[in-house]
Amino acid sequence: MPHDAFAREGLGSSALVIVAALNIQPAQTVGELIATSSVSRATAYRSLRTLVSYGLVLHDGEVWHLAPRAIEGLGGEKPGREALGSCSRGWDVVAEGCGSAGVSARRHALHAKERAAYLRVLEHLAERRTPAAVVERDGHLVLVPRPAPDEVPPNWRGPAGTVLDPSTGRIDTQWRVATDGRLILITPADQRTYDELAAAHAVALTEWETAS
What is the tens place of the pLDDT at every residue in 53-77? Predict the structure, then answer.
């Protein structure tokens, strides 16, 4: 498969499985090839015609088989270095005839460029990433948790969106549960920013978890 001859622009993967099927079980009819290679009848005929045009497959009536030395150096017994080199050159000639020579090298170069571009995007996003929000509590910095749908534990939830104080089990009128499950701090004169509300949220979670 690494040979350019079997790239999509060349013989294609269907031709490869047909070559492999004929290598394992020589002299097959088209019906038998459909079963052994798991391709459709139309694909089998199309691939066989292509393989015949490059002298890789021959047929005797309805029976198809590989041409002599068609896959020398591939499959079967472990090939020697000379056989592998000869076979590789043979497939390179087929790739040139198919117009698919160099496809793998171009694909690898493209993937390398895409990976490099992806890494540059990740680095750019890392530079723009918002720093973690923290709040100071008793001389310690407490990390403000990122909003999540399940921030309010089920045992803290009261009826009609109210919040239960885990230390007393009673409804805490300063807090509500939003429709997305987040805690909302309610005070009559509350003009806090979102960051301040998030910090208050973090403090409340720390206190309640300690109490519970």
Answer: 888 888 888 899 888 777 753 333 3
